[in-house]
């Protein structure tokens, strides 16, 4: 179906424009203290909202997901690397589900 | 540090993103083929879009045979959060960074790559972004192709465990700063609380996930910015 390629190009064009316009148009430093503070908090608010409660349904069982979530929080508080935290959470999910099967 | 070093550091720090992406896009590849796309189309879709929520939603429009306008509006709404992220990233660049480099960085504005690159100290070197983007897109596109071509070969328990990888990474990004700064902790807790509330609140829960995230982000970041304005030195 050649229509699929048009869909893909429409998606890609819209998504890329959203990403490219602010980066290319905003050249200077934003002076407003409010907007600067607002932008400082954006990544924390966004990633937190995306993580919870979605993480609880990311695996096959609520219990394994909750265990993975708890372990990830603990490892992150201890300042472990991105890879270590991600792999630790995966390993815990895998182990918990071994017991569930 | 020179450009090559920055690129290498990007590759290294992007490795967990690559793995997390592989797991998520693997699932996308399986769904895409089930929906009637070829392996090539699925891979091309991932390579050109690099956006999880947008792609899953877009796939449903393709399968349903929706209009191109519907597709464009849907992508605009779901991916509008990149507008905020791209604006935040623009503040990490100086006038030395030209248009071409900015267009290159823009290709890699995703939740995860943004989260890692915006929190580096000081000015953002474009080559750091390129490194992060290269390894991440490799995982994203590779996972899609692999899932589309051979989705059935991984055991279900492995796919389930990989499903949490991306969230583990989010947590590793936001929690360490939250333990050091009370306002950041409040932003994190506020985001988690409101997204939980949004899943149950009437009307709000009908909105797309992308729209919910935008509303929550604007709300939480505004309130925090008013209560705890950031002084120059505190900024990442």
What would you note in describing this structure?
The complex is a heterodimer of chains A (101) and B (236). Chain A is mostly helical. Chain A has one domain. In chain A, 76% of the residues lie in helices and 0% in strands. Chain A has helices spanning 3-25, 33-51, 62-77, 82-100. In chain A, α3 packs antiparallel against α4. Chain A is flat. Chain A starts with a helix and ends with a helix. Chain B has 236 residues and is mainly alpha-helical. Chain B folds into two domains: 3-175, no CATH class; 181-236, no CATH class. Chain B is 76% helix and 0% strand. Chain B has helices spanning 3-34, 39-49, 52-64, 68-78, 81-90, 99-107, 111-118, 126-150, 156-162, 165-180, 182-200, 209-227. Chain B is globular and about 50 Å long. Chain B starts with a helix and ends in a 9-residue tail after the last helix. The model of chain B has no long low-confidence stretch (mean pLDDT 88).
Question: What string, H for helix and E for strand, traces the elements of chain B in order?
Answer: HHHHHHHHHHHH
Helical content class of chain B: over 70%
Count of discrete domains of chain A: 1
How many beta strands in the DSSP annotation of chain A?
A: 0
What distance separates the N and C termini of chain A? 42 Å
Question: On the 0-100 scale, what is the average pLDDT of chain B?
Answer: 88
Strand content of chain B: under 5%
Overall shape of chain A: it is flat
Number of helices of chain A: 4
Give the number of domains of chain B. Answer: 2
Biggest β-sheet of chain A: count, sense, barrel? none
Considering residues with a beta carbon less than 8 A from a beta carbon on another chain, report the largest interface and each chain's count.
A-B, 80 and 104 residues
What is the radius of gyration of chain A?
20 Å
Work out the number of β strands of chain B. 0
What is the radius of gyration of chain B computed over CA atoms, rounded to a whole number of angstroms? 18 Å
């Amino acid at each position: 179906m050649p229509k699929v390629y048009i869909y893909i190009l429409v998606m890609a064009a819209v998504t890329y424009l959203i990403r490219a316009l602010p980066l290319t148009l905003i050249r200077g430093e934003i002076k407003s203290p409010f907007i600067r503070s607002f932008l400082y908090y954006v990544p924390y608010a966004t990633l937190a909202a995306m993580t919870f409660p979605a993480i609880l349904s990311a695996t096959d069982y609520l219990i394994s997901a909750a265990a993975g979530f708890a372990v990830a929080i603990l490892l992150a508080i201890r300042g472990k690397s991105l890879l270590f935290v991600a792999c630790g959470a995966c390993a815990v999910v895998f182990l918990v589900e071994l017991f569930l099967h | 540090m020179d450009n090559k070093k920055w690129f290498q550091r990007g590759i290294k720090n992007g490795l967990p993103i690559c793995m997390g992406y592989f797991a998520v896009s693997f699932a996308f590849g399986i769904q895409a083929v089930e929906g009637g796309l070829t392996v090539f189309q699925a891979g091309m879709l991932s390579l050109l879009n690099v956006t999880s929520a947008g792609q899953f939603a877009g796939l449903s429009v393709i399968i349903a045979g929706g209009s191109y306008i519907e597709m464009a509006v849907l992508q605009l709404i779901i991916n509008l959060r990149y507008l905020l992220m791209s604006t935040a990233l623009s503040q990490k660049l100086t006038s030395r960074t030209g248009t071409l480099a900015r267009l290159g960085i823009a290709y890699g504005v995703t939740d995860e790559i943004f989260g890692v690159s915006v929190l580096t100290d000081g000015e953002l070197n474009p080559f750091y972004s390129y490194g992060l983007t290269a390894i991440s897109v490799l995982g994203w596109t590779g996972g899609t192709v692999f899932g589309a071509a051979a989705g059935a070969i991984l055991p279900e328990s492995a796919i389930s465990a990989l499903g949490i990888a991306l969230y583990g990474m989010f947590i590793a990004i936001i929690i360490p700063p939250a333990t050091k700064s009370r306002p950041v902790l409040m932003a994190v807790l506020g985001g988690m609380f409101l997204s939980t509330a949004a899943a149950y609140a009437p009307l709000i829960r009908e909105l797309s996930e992308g729209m919910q995230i935008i509303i929550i982000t604007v709300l939480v970041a505004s309130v925090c910015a008013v209560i705890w304005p950031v002084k120059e030195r505190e900024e990442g």
